[in-house]
Design brief:
The protein is α/β, with parallel strands linked by helices. About 35% of the residues lie in helices and about 25% in strands. It is built from ten helices and 14 strands. The strands form two sheets. It has an eight-stranded mixed β-sheet with strand order 5-4-3-2-1-12-13-14. A six-stranded mixed β-sheet has the order 8-7-6-9-11-10, covered by helices on one side. α4 runs antiparallel to α5. The protein starts with a strand and ends with a helix. About 40% of the residues are buried.
């Protein structure tokens, strides 16, 4: 396979379920770099939440916050939610007392209520945060179908959403997608999408799996991802990404 760049999602794809990276996986990715194969990451996580993995893997470029921020070398691009749209949506959402809302600024996350497994600053004035710090993403926990329906109806034309892990609604600028971020990175390194292998597991990986030269789903991925992938590798807990790379790209 003529692959010059590997782009990989993190949670439930490269990372094991306990959020760790195996020594085997780290060594395989280091071998890729030694063989002049670029390693990029495309994740819904903000930059601050992937620092421990950056220390183990010297990523050539990073798409974080679902494409709202793209980082390479000492440069970055951002596609945040415009202030007017953020304020309009937030004023609607906070009128529903039961909604659990999180603002992701990239440098910090603020919530109106505690959020399990997500370190946030509790704040009762999210609109002021949006005005003062800007917003990369707005997240709403989907506690029932009615919540999803209400939020969808309040989105302005410049916004879109994805659902992660079946319960987390992520709202972003329409330009903030993993695929748009990947395209920006590929333009910088002068690499064609046909020369890219992409690994993913969830809805926000579908476009990239379709558009890259090779799209690979992990076995634990959702059915919609596995249905359109070129290959299905073993699960994240079985180091499926590293095993595929070693066998198919490093020819071992």
């Amino acid at each position: 396979m003529s692959i010059k760049t590997i782009v990989v999602d993190l949670d439930r794809t490269l990372l094991r379920t306990d959020k760790t990276l195996s020594t085997y996986t780290v060594n395989v990715l280091k071998e890729c770099k030694a063989n002049k194969i670029g390693i990029m990451v495309a994740t819904a996580r903000p930059l601050r939440a992937i620092e421990e993995y950056c220390e183990k893997i010297d990523f050539d470029a990073m798409v974080v916050s679902n494409g709202a921020r793209i980082i390479w070398e000492n440069k970055r691009m951002e596609y945040g939610i415009c202030q007017d749209s953020a304020e309009k949506l937030l004023n609607k959402l906070i009128s529903y007392p039961s909604f659990r809302i999180t603002l992701e600024t990239g440098d910090c996350a603020y919530s109106n209520k505690p959020v399990p497994d997500y370190e946030t600053v509790i704040c009762d004035d999210l609109v002021s945060i949006a005005k003062n710090e800007g917003v990369l993403k707005i997240l709403v926990h989907i506690d029932d179908e009615e919540t999803l329906s209400i939020v969808k109806n309040e989105l302005t034309e410049d916004l879109y959403y994805t659902v992660a892990h079946g319960y987390l609604m992520q709202i972003m600028n329409k330009s903030a997608t993993k695929w748009n971020g990947i395209q920006s990175m590929l333009n910088v390194c002068e690499c064609s999408s046909d020369e890219v292998a992409y690994f993913g597991d969830d809805y926000d990986d579908i476009e990239s799996i379709r558009m890259c030269g090779i799209g690979i789903a992990v076995a634990n991925g959702i059915d919609e991802v596995k249905a359109i992938a070129d290959y299905i590798t073993e699960s994240n807990d079985e180091d499926g990404v590293a095993k595929f790379i070693e066998k198919m790209l490093l020819n071992k």
